[in-house]
Write a structure and sequence with these properties.
Structural class: mainly alpha
Low-confidence stretches: 1-8, 14-33, 186-209
Mean pLDDT: 76
Radius of gyration: 27 Å
Strand content: 5-15%
Oligomer: single chain
Largest sheet: 3 strands, mixed
Number of strands: 3
Order of helices and strands: HHHHEHEHE
Number of helices: 6
């Protein structure tokens, strides 16, 4: 006896529902297994997405001019930047890098801010003792957070607003401190004779006016 159209349609619906239930049950079991496996992982068994020089924004026009005036060949390697630290965390990055330069007495890295009409509060911040955060002293100084405590405060604020978040790794690179306060060349000429060197060694800049 041939199947009636109504019966065929009904059987197809039942088959589709059964297949959907099998998929949902399988997905649930898979998710449970995934959670169980994740709970047993150690931190050194996890790979995460992160950013390089997380504190560094795209260079400002003034910074770009200094880099190009110093050595145009350096620009392609330095023509990059990251969004604010909070935005990187919101994007799902789990490893952020901060480069710290010691400034125990204050003022080692303040000179550039005396010649670019920086707000007084920013200059005062750079004159105070405490570790500073920047890429290449005298040449590439833009930063989302110019002092180490300021960077840590951003992380703490984000963490407070996202209770129960995944662990966030922070890689802290210790840069070689300057022996004497940086002297910055005014204007877009930047650091005369300075070259971008491996390991971010500081430039030899001299204040001229």
């Amino acid at each position: 006896m041939p199947a009636q159209p109504g019966m065929t349609s009904k059987r197809l619906r039942h088959a589709a529902i059964a297949a959907l239930l099998l998929v949902l049950v399988g997905a649930s079991a898979s998710a449970s297994t995934s959670v169980a496996e994740t709970a047993s992982l150690h931190l050194n068994q996890v790979q995460v997405l992160g950013s390089h020089n997380s504190y560094r924004p795209y260079p400002s026009p003034q910074t770009q001019a200094r880099i190009l005036a110093n050595d145009p060949q350096d620009w392609p390697a330095l023509a990059y930047g990251n969004p604010p630290l909070e935005s990187q965390l919101a994007l799902g990055l789990h490893q952020l890098e901060i480069d710290v330069s010691a400034d125990p007495n204050g003022g080692l890295y303040a000179d550039p801010y005396k010649h670019n009409q920086a707000p007084q509060a920013l200059l005062t911040q750079m004159l105070l003792p405490g570790a500073k955060v920047l890429h290449i002293p005298g040449l590439d100084v833009d930063s989302h957070c110019r002092t180490f405590p300021e960077c840590l405060a951003i992380f703490a604020r984000w963490s407070d607003h996202h209770p129960g978040h995944d662990p966030i790794g922070r890689s802290v690179g210790r840069e070689r401190p300057l022996a004497t306060p940086l002297r910055f060349r005014s204007g877009i000429a930047g650091c005369a004779g300075c070259r971008h060197r491996p390991h971010h060694r500081p430039c030899s800049c001299h204040h001229t006016g």
